[in-house]
């Protein structure tokens, strides 16, 4: 195992940390997990991350999990990359964004994609998915308003918040939600298209075999 390895699944929440790592320019390797095949439950991976989820970051015998923790760590470990704000209020705003997305958008989406986490009654799955879809749409509208001034999310400067925003944009356009992102969320779509122009984003999307925002 190399000094730094990211465990990820294509299109999963690990996408944000994957982009952040690529932005640093520092060497790292990746291990691709197939969640549909159950790779996250294999003994080999559980020895790395007993939670059985992605992402996980291995560094010299130390393992870090939880996407927002990885984003903060990557940014702070590479200050030269400028991925974390310097001003105290801008730092607070970055933390606010990460909290907003991780504690609202992510759980709402899980109700759409992972209804079995919330009930054992399969007859209740459609209702859970429908409510999750409504909630996720409402949250996306609020995020759209916050991005309506254009530019990057925090103080007009690129940060690890921006890859995290791109993640949820991709989920919105994906098969679970099927939102017309350009129509419903034009400001967020403009942000996604600006992200697509970055070399790190292009490299990661190619590695994960994802379609860039058009």
Report on the architecture of this protein.
- With 214 residues, the protein is α+β, with helices and mostly antiparallel strands.
- 52% of the residues lie in helices and 8% in strands.
- It is built from 9 helices and 4 strands.
- A 4-stranded mixed sheet has the order 2-1-3-4, with helices on one face.
- A hairpin with a 2-residue loop joins strand 3 and strand 4.
- Helix 1 (14-24) packs across helix 6.
- The termini are far apart.
- The mean pLDDT is 96.
- Residues 87-214 form the GST C-terminal domain.
- Pfam families: GST_N.
- It comes from Methylobacterium organophilum.
Distance between the termini: 36 Å
**What's the number of extended β-strand segments?**
4
- Low-pLDDT stretches: none
The number of helical segments is: 9
Query: Could you state the oligomeric state of the chains shown?
Result: single chain
Rg from C-alpha positions? Answer: 17 Å
Which series of helices and strands comes N to C? EHEHEEHHHHHHH
Chain-averaged pLDDT: 96
- Main sheet strand line-up: 2-1-3-4
**Helix-strand makeup class:** alpha+beta
